[in-house]
Amino acid sequence: MKKHDVQPLFLWRDDLRALGIRLSNSTLLRAEAQRRFPQRLRLSCASVCWDYNEIMSWVQARKAERDGWHYADAS
Q: How far apart are the C-alpha atoms of 40 and 68, rounded to whole Å?
């Protein structure tokens, strides 16, 4: 298996941005505290990341919610 074929275990802030998750750190912290976003993993006192599978599950759940969203009257 080639290195680029391996699914990542962790995502860092830049990886979240690359996926289109462009929330500020304070917004992420609030969402994590409210259990509305996967909680970060602390690898050291200065390094945090997120579990790849948890983030992808969260993204899929957001997609599934689309059908129930109503931003404006369609008429």
A: 28
